[in-house]
Amino acid sequence: MNQPNPAIVAQAAARRLPRGALLVFCLAYLLPGFVGRDAWKTADITGLGFIAELVQGSASWLHPTLMGAAPDNPSVLPYWLGAWAMQWLPSWLAPDLAARLPYALLLALAMASTWYASYYLARSPRAQPVAFAFGGEALPKDYARAMADGALLALIATLGLAQLGHETTPAVAQLGFSGLLFYALATLHYRPRSSIVSAWLGVMGLGLSGAPALALLFLAGGVLIHVLDSNSEAASDEHDPHKALTTALLLGSGLVGAYLCLRLDLWRWKVEIPQASWAELNGALQLLGWFTWPAWPLAVWTVWRWRRQLFNRNISRHLALPVWFVLVTLGSTLTTGSPDRTLLLGLPAMAALAAFALPTLKRQVAALIDWFTLIFFSGCGFIIWVVWIAMQTGYPSQPAANVERLAPGFVPHFSAFAFAMALVATLVWAWLVQWRVGRHRAAIWKSLVLPAGGAALCWMLLMTLWMPLLNYTQSYNALVDHTLERLEPAGCVETVGLGPAKTAALQVYGKLQLRPMQAQATCPWLIAEPYQDLSVPTSIDSRQWDLQAQVRHPADGNETVLIFRRR
Predict the structure, then answer these.
(1) How far is the first Cα of the chain from the last one, in angstroms, to the nearest whole number?
(2) Which of 228, 308, 346, 355 has CB 3.0 to 4.6 Å from 150, enough for a Cys bridge?
(3) What are the residues facing 119 on neighbouring strands?
């Protein structure tokens, strides 16, 4: 017997977002950050460095390296995708832009997977709204489509997705393939063949992207939920003869993926037991709070309002599957050295879980979300515009002085295209606010329109108006340019103590031929990273090398390199 369902939705509330508007909205969020941006420090430029070495043929495709050093998180597929793009795409395309395009497709894959997974989860019988006595409740497909729209809006609205989701790092590949695996497990009852293929691709992709253990955990929980779930619109027979075959194929994907990762030496012990301290707990709570906002409070509300179905002996697939993905991600976040990038993997499932809070929200709660979002993102947009005006005109004087202090040497320039895009985004935000405060109370996804629109607005403004400033402060290009000014043309440059990010920047943007310092090497120049007190590394022989210059990043004094010339 089904437990009481908290969702009460009329057909009028199951309207869907216009497909054209939804597509344009997704593209407006997706493209900024991948187009027209330099690689930022440190993980972004480091990933680009591994890709460049594969293209140059100076690293093994089965074991990517950067100046002979392996990545901290062993993975191969993300670097393959970037290298293939650089090799196959037209030469007139900037190499760093070409390398980013596969990552843009991976982010698009995560967004599409979130929509379709949420759609099919909402199609399950226990997820359907309560039937009215005289009819008028939302039709199953219309209801599921509206819920999927809400899940996609919740994903875009999450604050942590913006920057990390637009980088050239394995984390973006893991996000895309975890979304694909989530979609595969959510659609097993409706599209078994495509679901199995997607599950294989998701498991293989996650494993080759450096997360084989998470892939197996996601798969194991999803298979268990599939086995226990006997209440489905597509498979109502508890003894479905195809269920055993489907289960076997899913488990096979896990075994093959685990073996392949073992052969490529991608298994690593990455668990770090957190310290039992308030500082550790406070840091984790703060990260979880802002990174997944506003999806996490909605997800918590979903668990509470649907608890009678969630904590029941009969599996409710639309709740159990996203909860499992979120729990695995949270557990990994607390025991890994890169919690923010690990937390990315749970965003599709958390967004789907947040969508199921929408049918249960009271009008007062929805109004609170709207007003908070309106004030927060309008304020952020206003600040971005004021600082940009100050950079261009010098007025107001205080923001202009702050920019000069934080980014000495930065020369702002006016871009008509960036200004036009930012102005259009601002006008669309104003229209969206006007639409929301009007009498449009029926759509079930209405409470997530302003959060998603505000996140997209601020990201667009940052990637247009502030892009030159952010490139100047967040990339190594200024450091590379100042370094090249002090180097005469040379065939090669030796290095000592350079981190992977600076190494990648000098190779990719400086186009220098770097090699580790060796006794038999005869390069005329040497670039070294000083110790914390800016002293010369002891491994450098002063009888062979003369210090020529100390170059600092203009926006970060801690980023310094020493330039030596062979005597």
Answers:
(1) 86
(2) 355
(3) none
Q: Number of folded domains in the chain?
A: 3
Q: Which token pair is 376? A: 């927060």
In a domain, residue 5? The reply is: no
Most confident listed range (16-20, 46-50, 66-70, 281-285): 46-50
Q: What are the structure tokens assigned to 404, written together? A: 């000069």
Given a cut of 70, whether residue 441 has pLDDT beyond it is no
CB contact at 8 A, 453 and 415: no
Tell me, yes or no, whether 50 and 123 share the same domain.
yes
Q: If residue 565 lies in a helix (H) or strand (E), which one and from where to where?
A: strand 556-566
Distances (CA, A) of 96 to 12, 34, 67, 315, 404: 47, 9, 19, 46, 28
pLDDT > 70: what percent of the chain? 93
- My answer on whether 498 and 448 are in the same domain is no
Are 55 and 138 found together in one domain? yes
Asked if the structure places residue 85 within a domain, the reply is yes
Q: What pLDDT was estimated at residue 500?
A: 92
Judge whether 148 lies within some domain.
yes
Any domain includes 11: no
Q: In whole angstroms, give the CA distance from residue 464 to residue 33.
A: 9
Same domain membership, residue 147 and residue 101: yes
Q: Is 318 found in the same domain as 203?
A: yes
Closest by CA to 147, choosing from 125, 117, 177, is 117
- Residues 484, 403 within the same domain: no
Say yes or no to pLDDT of 232 above 90.
no
Contacts of 537 (CB under 8 A, 6+ apart): 496, 497, 528, 529, 530, 531
Single pTM value for the model: 0.93
Q: What digits encode the pLDDT tens for the residues 257-303?
A: 999 999 888 887 776 676 667 777 788 889 899 999 999 999 999 99
Mean model confidence pLDDT for the chain? 88
